[in-house]
Amino acid sequence: KIDVNGNLSKINFTSYYISNASSMEFNGFGWAWGGSWDSSGQSTRCLKLNSSGEVTFTSLFTAVSEPTTASISTYGYVAGGTTSGGTSGSMTADVCKFDISGNASSATALSQARRYMTGFALGDKAYFVGGYYNLKAYVNCDVYDSSGVKTTGTSLSYKRYLLNSYTNGNYAYVGGGRTSNTLSSSSDYSNNVERYNVSGLRTTMSALTNRVYSPCAFSFNGNGYFTGGAAYSGGAYQLDRYDASGVKSQDNQIVYLSAGNVDVVFEGKKAFLLQASLDSYNYNEIYDSVSTKIPITAGSVFNLTYTSGTAETSQILSFDKKVSGTIEYMKGTIPT
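The structure assignment produced for this chain is given below.
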């Protein structure tokens, strides 16, 4: 856990090893749902973590990994996912809801068994949009209200999965995704952006700069952003901004972001985009100001500084990436 001052401490909560669980914050607690625990495959276990780091356990109704989550005032919803067989395994339409006391009950199933959806809360309703099942992408939109009642929402304009979403005010934005099980052409990647209002009506917005799947999506300081993700030609580095009215602009490139390995950290009124893990080249180097080589390994932390220019556009990062013996230079600047 990390406190508000940035201090890190480890919680030895269990002897289990967990992968492919899904997490969210609900009613002041952190939750980790499902996943594969140790070598026993998909699990019904659910971990509940309070602000003091104390852990309790409850259970889902279905053993599942990679479910999609969304929370509203009355329930935290856990929907879909993989029930067996890992990446190419069986998928479920089951939905489990948790009340504010942590009691689990089943909700009406999704309209289609699937995984790799995006989930968001809007107007005190939980939305589960898009998804993947049996080598196909889907447009489905399933909506659950504060009483646990399911309705069918407005479908996406085009099928896709591994998409992402954020909410900003009275709207939710859904962007990017894969449209096909194959990745043989740029059309297998999506640049679609669609906006839902609190009534569930959908509007098509200006497209992303790049066709990507698994982009990072977040709202910050009155605007919403899509960045990073996997593009047809490799990692994407666009930073597409949508203002409160939905008007799109493109901010300065920050750094090169490899496929899907992007997280967001907020500090004051600055948003920092972090590459959270190594990309597919398996060997990266970073050089400091005196050209001293520092190896990048999983979990590396760097203290990066910059020299302020007149318009504060000085270079802050220079990455040297070694690709088949060739060095590619990727630089970043501070937006004015």
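Interim note for the steering committee: Residues 253-336 have pLDDT under 50 and may be disordered. Residues 228 and 236 are 5 Å apart (CA to CA).
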